[in-house]
Design goal:
With 157 residues, this protein is an all-beta fold. It has one domain. It is built from no helices and ten strands. The strands form two sheets. Strands 1, 2, 3, 4, 5, 8, 9 and 10 form an eight-stranded antiparallel beta sheet that branches. The protein has a two-stranded antiparallel ribbon with strand order 6-7. The radius of gyration is 21 Å and the shape is elongated. The N and C termini lie far apart (48 Å).
Length: 157
Amino acid sequence: MFKGETYKADYLLPLDRLFHGRSWGLLDFSGEATHNRLLSESVTGFDHTEYQGTITEPSWVARFDLHYAIGHVRLLYSVFYLPSALIGPGANITNSPEPVMVKSNVLHSIGMEYDWHRVTFRGGIQDINDSLVSFPTRSYGDIIGTQYSVGVHARLF
């Protein structure tokens, strides 16, 4: 059984509304939050395992994006939040060899895109602050550290 909500809000702001007489581009604000109130699974119908609040289904997940576009250039800033969560369903000090709670973490990313005729050049940095998670897991947070990316997309036809 699942109970939860996803909230999303977007706002596009042409900057010429604020600064008249010149085109300053567009700002795009986007926010999203997902709340997992209940996620339970039952094999027999009598026992229920609840996953909400664990690293597989955190209670809240939030993301905020800020895009700025002017001419052929587009800039992006993004922040992604994961709350503190249990390492597994029903985890406590007596039944888990790992730490019971994984602390919350925040991932900041920036990127840039430039369109030139039929070619798009991209670059970005993910996990700007290079903060390690309290306990490394492959499914919760970033255990690799700062990542850099560069790309080219060519449209031939």
